[in-house]
Amino acid sequence: MKLKEVDRTAMQAWSPAQNHPIYLATGKKFQVTPLTLLLFKRLLVIKFIFFYRYHKLIWGPYKMDSKGDVSGVLIAGGENGNIILYDPSKIIAGEKDVVIAQNDKHTGPVRALDVNIFQTNLVASGANESEIYIWDLNNFATPMTPGAKTQPPEDISCIAWNRQVQHILASASPSGRATVWDLRKNEPIIKVSDHSNRMHCSGLAWHPDVATQMVLASEDDRLPVIQMWDLRFASSPLRVLENHARGILAIAWSMADPELLLSCGKDAKILCSNPNTGEVLYELPTNTQWCFDIQWCPRNPAVLSAASFDGRISVYSIMGGSTDRLRQKQVDKLSSSFGNLDPFGTGQPLPPLQIPQQTAQHSIVLPLKKPPKWIRRPVGASFSFGGKLVTFENVRMPSHQGAEQQQQQHHHVFISQVVTEKEFLSRSDQLQQAVQSQGFINYCQKKIDASQTEFEKNVWSFLKVNFEDDSRGKYLELLGYRKEDLGKKVNFWESLMAYIDGLITQALLTGNFESAVDLCLHDNRMADAIILAIAGGQELLARTQKKYFAKSQSKITRLITAVVMKNWKEIVESCDLKNWREALAAVLTYAKPDEFSALCDLLGTRLENEGDSLLQTQACLCYICAGNVEKLVACWTKAQDGSHPLSLQDLIEKVVVLRKAVQLTQATDTSTVGVLLAAKMSQYANLLAAQGSIAAALAFLPDNTNQPNIMQLRDRLCRAQGEPMAGHESPKIPYEKQQVPKGRPGSVAGHHQMPRVQAQQYYPHGENPPPPGFLMHGNVNPNAASQLPTSPGHMHTQVPPYPQPQPYQPAQPYPFGTGGSAMYRPQQPVAPPTSNAYPNTPYISSASSYSGQSQLYAAQHQASSPTSSPATFPPPPSSGASFQHGGPGAPPSSSAYALPPGTTGTLPAASELPASQRTGPQNGWNDPPALNRVPKKKKMPENFMPPVPITSPIMNPLGDPQSQMVQQQLSAPVPLSSQSSFPQPHLPGGQPFHGIQQPLGQTGMPPSFSKPNIEGAPGAPIGNTFQHVQSLPTEKITKKPIPDEHLILKTTFEDLIQRCLSSATDPQTRRKLDDASKRLELLYDKLREQTLSPTITSGLHNIARSIETRNYSEGLTMHTHIVSTSNFSETSAFMPVLKVVLTQANKLGV
Amino acid sequence: MVSVINTVDTSHEDMIHDAQMDYYGTRLATCSSDRSVKIFDVRNGGQILIADLRGHEGPVWQVAWAHPMYGNILASCSYDRKVIIWREENGTWEKSHEHAGHDSSVNSVCWAPHDYGLILACGSSDGAISLLTYTGEGQWEVKKINNAHTIGCNAVSWAPAVIPGSLIDQPSGQKPNYIKKFASGGCDNLIKLWKEEEDGQWKEEQKLEAHSDWVRDVAWAPSIGLPTSTIASCSQDGRVFIWTCDDASGNTWSPKLLHKFNDVVWHVSWSITANILAVSGGDNKVTLWKESVDGQWVCISDVNKGQGSVSASVTEGQQNEQ
């Protein structure tokens, strides 16, 4: 393919290979013309100089460095026997004095020049009368001769240095004789001559690779051949190439590929042949003009230039291709450069250049028949999934030995495992072991011992406490407070009261408590005032307390305020963050279990938002106390550079331990993995996978999230482990069905469903027809299911996406019936249908994730309508999950029922259930049969984190039976921990679960509650709440029921939150709503106690009604009204929350 | 540590030019100057020949696996100016589509991120890049960028599908606003970045100029959730550059020289986690490089016949010059 064409110039020399950018020097033979330098890329004339008549022009890399600055030396052989050296950089720079040196030692025209490629300062020249000189550019004055002149004297038309041996030189003359010189011996060592004597040497070239081979080209029309000689057999040519019809004018052997030899002849052809075989590989499209010179571009191996007698130099690519557009572009470019007549500011006008109007006969030029060596990639290394590296290499063969050897060669591909993070892997291993052995205390202790920093030590100490008894007490100790000391401080209150005992009598004497109190206050005798007020009744006391707090400004007052008012939130919200330890200690000491986490959270959030980086890190401790994994992740990520594997490992260690701890101590539903945590965990899994630890990666990957990227990673990991490929069986689906919309905008629009749709099509490999949900390939093959990394304990969340049981119910290809909605649930994380089922359960997200199971269960047993009617709904996750761990018939679970008096009645004994449901061999509601049947002990240990969807007391009203059970479990942390460790593979955890499930669901409503005890102990905030966590079982905690007439408030509000949650998508809103759900408990508590004024309750009912009618703005108006007309302290606990909910509902339009 | 876990004797009769594992790392596709493409099942250290695909009439330069969500699809490109898309159906691999829209050797094929659908970019020695988009029912729509690289395009590599301004997946229901981009490298010593305009046309967005000879390969690093975009390029000039772009507009790219080798560098490949770069040079040398904490690129391993040790000195930022 012709790339470019230049007019008015004829002699050519490419800049050396080292040169960048590429230049082409041109000048006209035999005439006084400008020597022109062309910048190849744009074909711009860079510079030109006036010049003598000359015969030969070469460009040597003399003194060039590898940097490729324009340099080297232009060497011209002149008419008068002179050799002139020019400095191309000076020409380009526009300097006047561009001649480096010249010497006219030769007696006749210098027709041959060549630069030694090993010693670039050596130049050989040939002229008339057998004159050959070797010039040293370092000492240009006195040339050497290679030996005695050959006889008879004749012109030297060609001269060439050997490409392999630096002291070997060859010369040739038109008579057809070639002479090889050894410069060390200073004599000709061999003469090559054809017997026909008709060779008329026009070209001579050494083999680029083989030292003893060279070619000679003949200009004679009677013998238009190229002879290939091997000096070892100098009697006759090794090969004769007879591809030209008339005499050959020039040849050029590619340095980049020894199988490419260019030749141009008087038959107007330019051919590229393989001199090793004689085959013509390419014929360049030329016009009818002869070319007298042809040259490869040393730097760009695909480019060559040919000079023709019509005074043009054409630049070609031998890679073929279309020329049409190129020519147009070239014209554009040239004309644009000519728009500026003097683009280089030299003051000299550019010589006119014209684009030759070539007739566009064909547009496509085929490339070489054989791919040139330089595009044959010999080596490659590519990464693939799982830290594998695929490499291949092809041993370089001397090309002349040809293909035979290559065929004998074995062509291997190596698949290697790359492991770069040894420490990371070993630490990950330790973590896994700790998880498997449940040796968390030991693990934490080791971490504490190995801690480099105080902070690290603190964090691990805090984490460790989670696994010990009396965690709050231990937290306090870690904060520097001993429980006993605190006890003393608390006793201060008792002693205070005792001390003032005497004054009570005094007050009684006057009978006027109020004025006595005022007097005391005025006198700043606060204690007196308070004591008097106590005697004066609640109202007076309250007023007095307020006055006191208003008046007293000491720091301790705030604490006391909080203690008395039980308003820890305010403390946490307003305390000086320098005293965060104190605040945390206070919370640890006083806060009720249901607000404890939230308060720790709040404190953590404040610390985190503080500019002080030291405090920011301390927020982690608060989050650990709160058991808030997600926030810990967020905070930690902010503080640490999480990109390094080891720092990620640091985080994951803590997170894993904390999650475990949270399961044990706070019974939070840890199965809900936050977005951030999921991202980190999957990043971690990715890292493990990248180190080849596929199994470990699977173990750490959150298994209960429906985030597409995690599910895809899981699928990838599973299959990377070498599961059978379902694709073999029926690989029909995804490809044909994949409809990529035509037209770009359309395809973009299509994205909106794409991730989901794709995920769906992505998994089903073997299913035909594919089920509505997206399936794991594994369920195609029942045996494959054994390889699934999910344990039964996990299945409750995984069932919806992977309806495994399918193969076992061949009669029902879609056993889920309308349960389809459940199967699609992963795509709509919070499904509305579930929302009504548990009006009282505030933990929406978990509840919704269970709906799938219930449907699955229903379908399996055909027990009831497979729709998501409340009757078939599973219980709140807490009970279900906790019973799972009990195993069938395990005593702990059954004993757990019995505990809270008043609630047991609603829990039927397991025996009341139909036997089929109780003892079905493999039909655990969430157990895929395959998993039950196939022993998979080997795989199980990887699943070290059975999500225990136990709702925490934080998220749960204290009076709920579930939470009581939870607390029940808390009372016996040891057995629980052992149970929850690793679910037995065969554990059909579902039975007891269903036992409670159904009847509970049918009652539709939690049983009545009795008034919680803690609420009734306002004056003794000390030990009572503090012991809460540890000593709950001994206490009877029940809450009063919400009066029937107000129950509607709770159901309405919770229903609304459910609705919001189901349509809210961004995590922040969801968090807000979750939080609101929790905090509304305060309202329900007040309703239970009936402490709200009638105006407020009636206002709340109004709001509830407006919610019913979806008129949220009206609700908000009423809300404002209530807030503005009521006592702030009375409503401040819940009204803001309610506003948040209403606002969200309004925004979401649910 | 780099240790061979499987040595696959491909029985190719000539030079191998590419070897790629599928998405899961369970199947290996190879291609060779013997004009064939082979697929091996390499699970558990095995090497079962699944398919020996014949159809090209010249050396086959590259193979590329499509994402498995579209089925089992492999693209190959050859000196014969053709791109062939192979597909497994009922356990048999067959030619599914042949693209003969180039006038010269097709040197590189690369599938777009699966989020965009089935789109294949092909770079050819004719200087053009063509984009094949599957439009369903066996139809492929072709778009061509002519004269993308003078004298030829050697490599194409897609940018990962990242929605600008978001580190995590956008919630469903919202329209992902993907901007499709890819990089190409060619015989004009340039790396070019191409971006799909709203009208569906491809436009040259950037020209990255640092190499002084043919760009042999470009590799856009996988996204690991960071806002930085990274491209590795290697060249005939022996240089490997790491290009990074931090700004949101994606227009300011700065090169950092990873190393200057003494021979042509043919291929660069990022690990899936984008933290290791494998560099394959003309001297049959494969080296692994990693960025140290102080931002220097350090050679952590020399891989010879699939074996090598890994130096632990990365964290010290020690420069392992060779």
TrEMBL record, chain A:
GO terms for molecular function: structural molecule activity. Residues 800-813 have a biased composition (Pro residues). Residues 854-871, 892-902 have a biased composition (Low complexity). Keywords: Cytoplasm, Cytoplasmic vesicle, Endoplasmic reticulum, ER-Golgi transport, Membrane, Protein transport, Repeat, Transport, WD repeat. Residues 780-790, 914-925 have a biased composition (Polar residues). GO terms for biological process: COPII-coated vesicle cargo loading; endoplasmic reticulum organization; protein transport. Residues 724-839, 854-945, 975-1025 are annotated as: Disordered. Residues 504-698 form the Sec16 Sec23-binding domain. Belongs to the WD repeat SEC31 family. COPII is composed of at least 5 proteins: the SEC23/24 complex, the SEC13/31 complex and SAR1. SEC13 and SEC31 make a 2:2 tetramer that forms the edge element of the COPII outer coat. The tetramer self-assembles in multiple copies to form the complete polyhedral cage. Interacts (via WD 8) with SEC13. Interacts with PDCD6; interaction takes place in response to cytosolic calcium increase and leads to bridge together the BCR(KLHL12) complex and SEC31A, leading to monoubiquitination. Interacts with KLHL12. This is Protein transport protein Sec31A. It comes from Cebus imitator. The gene is SEC31A.
From TrEMBL, chain B:
GO terms for molecular function: structural molecule activity. It holds the Pfam family WD40. It is found in: Lysosome membrane; Nucleus, Nuclear pore complex. GO terms for biological process: COPII-coated vesicle budding; mRNA transport; positive regulation of TOR signaling; protein exit from endoplasmic reticulum; protein import into nucleus. GO terms for cellular component: COPII vesicle coat; lysosomal membrane; nuclear pore outer ring. Belongs to the WD repeat SEC13 family. At the nuclear pore: component of the Y-shaped Nup107-160 subcomplex of the nuclear pore complex (NPC). The Nup107-160 subcomplex includes NUP160, NUP133, NUP107, NUP98, NUP85, NUP43, NUP37, SEH1 and SEC13. At the COPII coat complex: interacts with SEC31A and SEC31B. Interacts with SEC16A. Interacts with SEC16B. Component of the GATOR2 subcomplex, composed of MIOS, SEC13, SEH1L, WDR24 and WDR59. The GATOR2 complex interacts with CASTOR1 and CASTOR2; the interaction is negatively regulated by arginine. This is Protein SEC13 homolog.
